[in-house]
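Chain X:
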Amino acid sequence: MTRSLAYATVAALAAAAMLGAPLRAGADATPLGPFGFTTAALGTTSYYGEPSLAIAPDGRHELVSTPGGGGVNYWYSADAGHTWGTTSTQCGGGDSALDFLPDGTAVSADLNFPGDQNNPADSCIRTSHDFGKTWSDYSRAGMEQDRQWLAHSPDGKRLFLVYHDFIAEAEWYSQSTDGGVTWTNLPSDQVPVNSADQVSALPVAAGGGTGSSASILDQGVNTFSGPMLVDPDGKHYYVVYSISDAQSNANPTQGVPPFGPVRALVVARSSDGGATWTNTLADVAQVSGTSESMENTLFPWGFIDSAGTVYVVFDSTRDGAPGDHFHQYYVYSKDHGATWSAPVKVDTLGLPDGAAAYATGAAVSPGVIDIAWYQSNNGTPSDDSSVWTPYFAQVTAADTAHPAIRVQPVTSQPNHRGGICLQGILCGVGPGSSDRSLADFFMLAVNPVTGLAEIAYADNASFGSGKGEVVVAHQQGSGVVTSQSIPAPTPAAGGGTPAAAIQTPNTAGAPGAAGVASLAALALLAGVRPVARRRRGRRAGTG
């Protein structure tokens, strides 16, 4: 038995011992809502936060990972998520990221935080040639990292690890040209995702506006890292991130101490395969007097459709939403990131009602996108009485001024009770809830063969302290809706683009202030009785 196979066998046994039986004995086995979501959990564990999800090009093999326990915990499926095996690897135990290359090679990045004396805060990179059952010994990539993401060129010959640098407080990438076996991991090899025009650009607080270059003064203060996006043409590359700044008009103890609220959404763009970059402001916080909206919370998410349109989804309190009533938005660009649309509100909550936290999404086809988030109909992230449930939206004509949006909950059961801290590693420093038990993100992917959405999310709604499960939701239906169309709320003056919202009518009575059907009503209309969830298979992310 080879060293890697022997290691994998031991790791698989350790992972199996780590997992407990699913806490709940049932599942959303009957498809829920017009998109027909079913769910299955992957087993009770202490390491359920920040699940990553990747689907192989064949559409059958899937991988889910979470960091924790000194390494990465993996769940792998060879039958499109019907059954799962589990294994783990040991290295750092920090943020984890997954990718499948075109030839089916799986790649995993595990943040080795704080690293060692010679390789501070790097990533441990492993590859798998059996879709995640066994993993190679690790190589190292990147320097001084916080959050890291994987991406690859269309032909799979270039693999990228993009990350946030702790010292420079900026975005960088390392790359591999041999399928992830070896990486550029010396300081001189790291490629900065910035440009000369950022030196002269105005900071956001000094008047920098949407479409202008993002100032290095903003990026150099506090940056929140999102993924790298690669255009199907193989030439255009993008890195998504958000920024706050030390010159905020708001109280600097609010938002992300000591820098104040997250101020702007930035998209770095390259037209020469990542050699040179221009950083563009895709959306900027609205400021009124001494107050401002907290735009683009910690992890904005981006993706590209097959026509090359770039999308970024994010949470925001723009459009006049009071307090921390965050809502889900997206912007898009059809000219390779040079200019951006007005933000489009996605969720069907009224601006003063409830909240939508975190953001994830993927493109289905040109102009058709899927988005998911955690939603509370009764509270906000700072409210410890809030009850949260994963929600899903499909947007058609998403790249036009008149998109149509269809929204439904992913499950009939909440995945979290209480607050959700949106301050990353600074949770507990500022005001609001300090509950970071779900960590900072979850993930949606579209099956490349079926075109249906799959979502991996964290669930600790009914667990004891420190326990939870990763849940995988599968879209079973096409999402064809025959119910009435209900217009989306009209944004406040200067707000996002109005969109047509198509949702199941609320038959439980008059529509509530949130303007969205209750979970019970949706379940009844879909012919679903609340049933116990068939649950089979965390850590606190470093942010």
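Chain Y:
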Amino acid sequence: MQLPLAYLDRAAIEEVSIDLWKDVFNVVGWPSSLTSKRDSFAHDDIVSAFAKDELTDPLLQALEALHSFGSDEGREAIMTAMQDRSAGALPAGNGDREFALRFFIAQRQDASLADAFARAQIQIQEGGNPRRYNEFMGKEARSVKGLDRKKEVLRERILDFCEKSDLGNHVQVEAFEDDGLYVFNILRSHRTQKPLAVVPGHSARATIQFRPVHGDVIRYDAAVGRLRIAARASTIIDFYREVLGKILFNDAAFFDGDPVCSLKVLQERGRQAINHEVYGIGRVWMTECLWERGDRELHHIRSNDCFRSMEELNLPLTDGTLVQAKLKCEVIGKSTRPVTVNIRVPSRIEVSQKIHEDLIDRFLDATGIRNAAASSSTINLWTLYPWRHSVVTWRSLFGAETDKLVREQVLKTVQLAAVPHPDHLAAGRVLDVHAVSNGDYYGVSRAEEIPARSLTATDLDGLELQPEQLRTHLRTRFGITNGGVRWDNGELLDLGFLEFGGHRIYAVYALQQPRPGIGDALRARADGAHTVLLFPSPEGDGAELAHVTLESALPTKQDLIRQAACACALDGSVPAVYTAPDGARLVVDTRLGKVWVDGVEIQGLSSDSQPYKFLVLMAKSATPVSHDEIVNAISPGRQNQDEDVAARQAKSRARELIAESMSALGRSFDEDPFPAAGRGLYRCAVLSYVR
């Protein structure tokens, strides 16, 4: 998963000693790049690992604890919860950050501390989290050139700002690029503090003068032109926005584009606006909002359901403007606490549990609260024909896959013959390129009102799609080894036979709209198998054959099988594991009486067994299930007996069968997918799908 931006806060990472980081990694697992450095690594290595490695869920939970509880407010929440539960003590003399991590480690082995941990989470999440991020849209989606040189210029500008603003003279800037995401990690001094303190070894009070160090993180997404700033001090946000525009693109107003956040959809559609189909998020409701009406009225509404309160009070919500809203989102996972999302137009977003930032982003995008770059929605493989474009354009289509496609020669490096004028993008590729000398070029405009301009070789960098290499890549991606023919310079890529669930289809990828009459030729190649046209564009018309409109130009194998099975009316006859949505870890097919966990079929289950009935019940239930309900489902004859024993036995046997099936394939499974949810209750903590 994409690391939440706040977790790259270098100041927070450096406040924790190397020895304590070793203790954390020994408990939750080591990042892959640090495995060979267990005996000797520095904070630089930790920052690099967090930015580039695939982090485990336990490590992400440790980072969540570090940022949630690593403050005076977080420490107070922990101490209050521990006193309330009469939990054991923790080592004294640690700073707030180290105390938070030691508490996280301890609660994994101590049930009373785990109970206090859950209560402290509730307090800190409901009390609000001051860490936030602001987002700004650029005038266009553009990549960054000369990152190392611009990083040093950025450091000098921040240092100058800090000195003029009495923020000290310590500034360190790190920058790296990862698949079109440019991340800037900034450590800077802040305003002088002189607290009254007692120095260890002395009894007298004295003032201590120091400047705290703040860690700010900035991320620029070149695919859509969006800048995200996570800064400790809100007063520095506008400075960052202007200086990044000036340094990266020589335009201080570059990030003055369209507002990123808008709450108009809540006013226009009311409660219907937050009804959604984002997988992984359940119910969403609004608990707080600020409603601005003219220049003399600002109404603050707080309720467990603001829309219901507005309806009861008959408030004309379409009047005025909603400027802030707090939403609660139920998220399927280990924690039962809803995620709180606070949106303040035009750019501020606060997420209470940063581990779910990416999921919340998808929800805000789906509802229209968070806006994407206007141009990105119209780009698809068909509109890009004849497939010669800038790297940024290809990134907007293929995203993080772009670099891999370049390495595999699916996208070939070329020099473009015509380019847009950077100040007149709406005019199209209006500059015809002419070589001058010594690697310099001149762009001659085809429109009188647009001037000519000098160009460099970098301005002409482009990529061209190689259809046959794309066909080979797609066959490998989908695991296709039989059938298919080489590309014949036409509009179709014949991929070959895809087999699943006792069926097979002949998959054909449409580079452009197929010509009329192609159906007979493709049926002959399919040799009796179902033929499916794959359209990477919503404009496709496949009346002659079954067809699928792909949500992505490079779908996953699971996504393709799911859509193809539906298009061929096979979704009712193939096992449910093939039609389950991406991310579903527990899949139950009630027709076949089979269960899969993480794609592995669980052996030893029969449809009339108690473990099977237990798994079906838990997979179907979006809310906690009582022991009485479990007994009623798995063994009605045992009602009024010891429900606790029967429920525990069914759960225990189901877990044993899962672990045995995993072990048979050389995989381990040591988690509890059905943890307790209070006395006499179990809940399903993994995403599930039942058919």
